[in-house]
Amino acid sequence: MRVGVLLSLGIMALADKHGRRRVLVTCLIASCAVTALGAASTGMIWLGTSQTFARALSTVVVILIAVVAAEEMPAGTRAFAVSVVTMTAALGAGLCVLNLVYVDTALGAWRIAYLVPLLAIYPCLRMARRLPETKRFESRRLRNATDTNLPVTDRINWHRFAMLAIGAFLWSLFLAPAAQFLNEFLRTERGFSGILIAVFVLATNTPGGIGIVIGGKLADKHGRRVIGAIGIAGGVLFTVISYLSWGWPLWLASVAAAVIGAIAIPALAVYGPELFPTSQRGTANGGLQVVAVAGSSLGLLTVGWLADRVGGIGQAMAIVAIAPALLVLVVLFWFPETARRELEDLNPADQAI
Length: 353
What we know:
18 helices, mainly alpha, Growth Hormone, Chain: A, 353 residues
């Protein structure tokens, strides 16, 4: 399913050409419909194919929402805007865990989970009528129409792309296995039942919403780099502790990891939309997502391989924590400070918009 990110890259390029609104609405509705196809699957090929396309479409939705938030919000509130969007997305993702309550109650009950997104289509259609195009994209399109000497697209700053790609790779190398192996870890190494896993995930991850909002506020006030580095370091430390703990320390460390780690999310997530011009913002962020997925895949393979050789998932997670440790240094000494600066100041190609 991770191969679908390549499709999302192509779709993101369309958002730079035809507008954020049109692509966002189309992908939002299509992702709900395509996900529902999984309920009718007769085998892994059908299920895998349908969800590959669904994942690609939903990836575009996530990226474009962040782009729209960055383009529309004032310079001093971009990280906070991203934090609010991230928090609501995390709430939706957390509710998906409730599917564990009924999926093993009857043969075929798992199909219900794939039908749930259909409930979102009507609200999306209502929203589409009131969703405007971003002012920056409209200004860019108008500028292209009136100035024939202006290039249709600006060049991507490859130095910035490489910087953010390295950061995304290192972060995903740890974050993906930390999330994906959690259910297996709780079930096989800590003896949790399906219902207890659902309770654990909701109870320990929900407080992370506090960290996301606080992180957005702090990143706008005190800067992206310091807040991002603190969030990464604290979140990773307590995540490793949770994977090496039993009983109530496991629960407490997981809560601390969720709250502190969440502080870094808005500080880092806003860099992608901020550091590229309007005409390349979607494509560049789609490319960064491809790199992040590569890091996720490598992280999953590495932890899976290490877990069989070092004594368990917890020990494997402690080893791959080297990646975010390096990321802290990258953020502090390589990333630029973008807080309270207009997008046009960060991207000279947009200054005439």
